[in-house]
Amino acid sequence: EVQLVESGGGLVQAGGSLTLSCAASGFTFDGYGLGWFRQAPGKEREGVACTSASDGALYYAESVKGRFFISSDFAKNTMYLKMNSLKPEDTAVYYCAADRLDDYCSGSLVDYWGQGAQVTVSS
Fold this sequence. Notes:
Layout: E1 3-7, E2 10-13, E3 18-25, E4 33-39, E5 46-51, E6 58-60, E7 68-73, E8 78-83, E9 92-99, E10 112-113, E11 117-122
Parallel strand pairs: 2-11
Antiparallel strand pairs: 1-3, 3-8, 4-5, 4-9, 5-6, 7-8, 9-10, 9-11
């Protein structure tokens, strides 16, 4: 099966850091754009951090610029989202994603989604 399996979610205090991991099986990241999205209670899904499928260009939501960083390890077929200086408003379910076409962090052209990881930031 094609799967993206997430790990690393949890509870953290405001100002703390957390790193999410997303391991792929059934396909390889080579040639895919990678992304992280989140959905908070009562809110719509939001693109957080993404890489372009075509040239690797980075896209970050304004709310996370300078705090969140997307990266990948092709040898491990795993992507990461390092989250620093976490705020209560970062509380959400975070989803990793892979897309063959340039999605530009819209979520509209995603081919594969992770199962979601809960991140809760307490004040």
